[in-house]
Please model this.
Amino acid sequence: MRSDFLSADRDSLYLLPPSVQDWLPVNHLARFVVDIVGQFDLTLLRDAYAGRGCKAYDPEMLLSLLFYGYATGTFSSRKLELATYESIAVRYITGNSHPDHDTIANFRKRFLAELKPFFIQILTLAHEMNILKVGKISLDGTKIKANASKHQALSWGYASKLEKQLKDEVESLLRQAEQADQSTIPDGMSIPEELERREKRLEAIAKAKREIERRAEERYEKEKAEHEAKLAERERKAQESGKKSGSSPKLVEKRG
Model:
């Protein structure tokens, strides 16, 4: 019985260049982060790059990348670099550019003190907009039980407690990022450089498959020899005793 399937076409070219604006739904967290960070005055960060001979990545993009990554549970700079290739949301944030892990880690370390208040501002604005969750950061499950939240205007005391809580959240995010970058444990599967090109990767897959088949053939021949030896031993004992040998043990079929 014939069935028709929609094929996964990975080779057709786009008639028009794709736009990152078309990649995400309008209410996606990545858009929210980019829009908020776009409102910040980042003059202090940008001025720090004055006098450099080569162009640097825009601090606005790197700040958005760090916050989005940390808020969604990606703390390692290496994993963030990988996400610039694999994650549609991150590719939207970076404008389809790919800062390497050293650039990402150095930006965090260089501007650590400046990043904290920006992160707090993002969370504060989200809370003010009645957003209950930013990535994995829950803003509705706060430990603060304030009746003032029922009113449109927050009391000074509640605002102070909220700021303290959000500061603790940010400190935790940055601490986890530092630990992730210092860790010597590999981040997931690390593909060797020689496998990065598709042709070599296919060669490696074929080589691995041949090795598996070789070991299977070797195991089968060994089991076959052992089986034949058992049969010969049974036949010898049968001839010595004059009794007919019982049913012969079966050899496990060769797996293709």
Strands lie at 133-134, 137-138.
